[in-house]
Amino acid sequence: MSQETVKWLNTMTLIGFTEQRGHAWHYRADAQDGETNHYPAAIPVEDVRRRLFSWKVLEGDVTSTATLLDDDGVGTLTITDPDRKAMLRPPGALGPNDPGAILGVFKSGYAGHDYAQWLLEQVAEILDDELAIGSAGLLRGGALAWVSIEVPETITTPEGVAFRPHLLATTSFDGSVATTYGRKVQLVVCDNTHAVAMAESGQQIKVRHSRHSQIKLADAREALALVHTIADDFAAEVAQLSAVHVSDGDWARFLDEIAPLPDQQGRARTLAQSKREGLQRLWDHDTRVAPWRGTAFGVMQAVNTFSHHEGTVRGMARSERNMLRAVTGEVDALDRTTVQSILQIAA
User: N or C terminus: fewer CB in 10 A for the chain?
Assistant: First the structure.
């Protein structure tokens, strides 16, 4: 991980409830500009506003200028596209040396969702005595933001799975995600994100970036229900999956399904072999997975942990990839596919 990434994670993300879950893996006191980004309890709303959302994304024209060479010398041609607009991070938004940036270019009907309004003011509507901000942050140069609403206490199931239910509220100005309010859990032992893999619906609320987009109070109350119901739903899923026995033969067949070995030697076989060895090591020895070895829950945890911490990452830092997977629902789809596969094999 680059020093630039370390600096960003320690200044542009805020981590709460560290008395419950400990420091984030990226914690570096010397990279925090004199103000820690870790909070022993809940993160104050005003700290999120001051430290992350004190600036507003601006709209600008999409203009292109070309240099022309003609008989009269050098000239320029400038054309503005009336059907598109740019979303801009203003200079100084992320610090005194920030030159500003173009976050995204969209059709004229696109309507950005202001971070403070959609991730703080809207979220404030669903906060109650049992919910508070557990994390918040910016990614992609400020083009994506999230706020996580959590219960104060970590929950531990009879199977020994310690987790923290939360509502993940996120939006973007680069087109990567719609404004989304989704229910998630974070496993304390591994910092992995899960949803309820066996649920068919009710996992999230999405609001598109359009002129007519809005979230009503009824939607906010529904989002509140998402937080309070996920603890029971996830605990029930852990119990159900932990009761499904996965034999050594089942596990071998599962590996053949998700990481088949090509007959010919080469890069594809090397990658498949590396994935199989990584999953086998987690299954047999790693404290993030091995306590649930021999169960369907252990299989889901092995695949999720491998993808989260060891799988190949291209074009971005692992931390950014992991947050994006949580936001876009990719991690939910991975869990769902894993569960469906192992339940069929172990049936």
Answer: C
